[in-house]
Write a structure and sequence with these properties.
Blueprint: H1 6-21, H2 23-34, E1 43-48, E2 55-57, E3 61-63, H3 66-82, H4 92-101, E4 104-108
Antiparallel strand pairs: 1-4, 2-3
Helix pairs in contact: 3-4
Length: 110
């Protein structure tokens, strides 16, 4: 794309050069980010650092697929926040705690 302002063209050219020079690092970062699901409305991701399975959950459970567990509890959290009267098996605080136990920290706004 052509920009009439020379300073903006130079800035964009520098950014493109930087991205080309760090192509592998950018690719790894984007692939890692793609593995993190979108947070429900009102939920802010604080940390995504999944533990290696198996992970023992305090409520007498062992998680052998932390990615699937994190995604399923995120979906339960999304439902619990969107439909507070619908029972998803756990309260919002319990769902947040279960995620922490596998290495994912979130906060609920409001």
């Amino acid at each position: 794309m052509w920009y009439p302002a020379e300073a903006r063209r130079e800035e964009l050219a520098q950014q493109v050069s930087f991205l080309r020079a760090h192509r592998e690092e950018v690719s790894v970062l984007l692939q890692a980010r793609a593995a993190i699901p979108v947070m429900p409305a009102g939920v802010r991701l604080l940390k995504w650092n999944l533990k290696e399975p198996p992970v023992a959950i305090e409520t007498c459970a062992v998680v052998t697929d932390t990615v699937r567990f994190a995604q399923s509890t995120l979906e339960q959290l999304r439902t619990a926040l969107a439909q507070p009267r619908r029972w998803v098996g756990w309260t919002v605080p319990q769902l947040i705690d279960r995620r922490v136990q596998v290495g994912v920290c979130v906060s609920v706004e409001g």
